[in-house]
Amino acid sequence: MDHPLTRTKVVGYWFNEKKCQKFGVAELKATCKRRGIELVKIDMSSPMEDQGPFDLLLHKLTALYAQARNDDPKAVAAIKMFENYIKDHPETSVMDPLPGVLRLLLRNQTYDLLRQCFKQDGK
After folding, report:
1. May I have one GO cellular component term (predicted)?
2. What is the mean pLDDT of residues 106-116?
3. How far is CA 95 from the centre of its chain?
4. Of 11, 25, 26, 81, which has the fewest Cβ atoms less than 10 A away?
């Protein structure tokens, strides 16, 4: 077993396929590996406990949150699992903390509602 100070860092990530292509995940994985970092795609249909432990979580959950708000049961379960993992593992760093993601999602919904209101007024 690795010495705790030399253990490979594990970064868990979840992006939809479009974001994976945009971010060039294959190249990112190779770069991380060269630097002693393992980049692991999180399977949102399997327990995160079985996939970790993670040192860092990268995510783009906005679309998943939107699906969950529309009562998509798979999205609801995935978000709950992700949130519970973060709560149960405070030692894991999270890029884009979830409260900020939710605030952004709500802000975008507010802007959409305002745009709809202005369209109805003929503006």
Report:
1. cytoplasm
2. 68
3. 8
4. 26
d(CA 46, CA 115) in angstroms, rounded, equals 39
Structure tokens, 88? 């149960």
- Which residue type, as a one-letter code, is found at position 118? F
Contact in structure between 11 and 55 (CB atoms under 8 Å): yes
Which contiguous run of DSSP H or E holds residue 14? strand 9-14
Predicted confidence (pLDDT) per residue in 40-71, tens digit: 999 988 999 999 899 999 888 777 887 888 88
CA distance 116 to 35: 48
Cβ atoms within 10 Å, residue 72: 14
CA 91 to chain centroid: 17
Long-range contacts of 82-86 (CB under 8 A, 24+ apart): 82/14, 82/42, 82/44, 82/48, 82/57, 85/48, 85/49, 85/52, 85/57, 86/57
pTM for the predicted model, two decimal places = 0.70
CATH of domain 9-96: 3.40.50.11370
